[in-house]
Amino acid sequence: MKSILLIFASLSFFNFYAQNTPLYVGTYTAGDSEGIYKLEFNTETGELSNKTLAIKASSPTFLSYSADRKYIYAVNRAETGTEGDYVSSYKILDNGTLANINSAKAHGTAACHISIDKKGKKAVVSNYTSGTVSLFDINKDGSLNEASQIFDHNAASEKSHAHSAQFYKKDLFVADLGRNAVYQYQLKEDAYKLKTSAIVEMEGNPGPRHFCISKNGKYIYIINEHGSSITTVKRTKNKFEQIDHDSTLDENYNGKNACADIHLSKDERFLYGSNRGENSIVVFKRNTKTGTIDKIQNISVHGDWPRNFTLDPTGKFVLVANRRSNNIAVFSIDLVSGKLTFLKDYAVPTPVCLLF
């Protein structure tokens, strides 16, 4: 009997850890939050549990893994006006908590986004208020060097607000909400050089904020904060062209709104975006041959001001960080239709970034 109980206990222990994966949460620390939190997410049930403080930090508002997932990088807002914003590297310890490795100046104000290249050798930081973009070399021990390149997007007649950036092979794309453009840089002789300050011309003042790139690099989906819209861009042989433009709002919604984040489903058949104001996640069905999208759902986030959201590693759930209501909402994904169903929400102080 003892042997049977021991085997049962071992299987239960194995299943728990097989189904649970860590979720790290970046926050603003002006209120009740103390830094980066860690929770366990059950990929079978969609349950979140075991909330712990992974490390104390000053407003770690956006997070990114290293290529080997041994380290986490964060942009940090300075605690006082006399300090500058900075970027931090953390080592993931065996128990899931984080240990500080080092920090480097962000070379800008309101640092809001960080991304790591696939080889794990470069980090790029977007600084919203100053309109600068900073590039950092990453060492083998996970530490950061001081910025190797700094791009200033400001013009005499137009203020830049760099909001996000991503690497794709030898390209570096930057969404600039202030200049209403997505910039393209290319890697040449160990440095990134500007290729174009606008991959497509955007009419009016849409405010491109975040974007996602299809796996083959052929399509870029840009979510526009001011325009409450998604601009679909196709890469041709030598340039880019806009092929679609869609509203993120329900046709019956007439209030104010500011879009935030955007992600493709694991199979790239669906596209998701977050609406702050309507407080919803919008769902689009994607034509995988043409790249165009069609709206199929707007669903409440069961909270206020959904900033960042993410899909879990299995692609079966969407988790949403509701900054103003201090909660994370969990949704299941219908893998056939792509539509979402609300499951439950969990209290977390001022969540703004979710990292699996």
Automatic annotation (TrEMBL):
InterPro entries: Cycloisomerase_2, Haem_d1_sf, Lactonase_7-beta_prop, WD40/YVTN_repeat-like_dom_sf. Keywords: Carbohydrate metabolism, Glucose metabolism, Signal. Residues 1-18 form the signal peptide. Belongs to the cycloisomerase 2 family. This is Lactonase family protein. It comes from Algibacter miyuki.
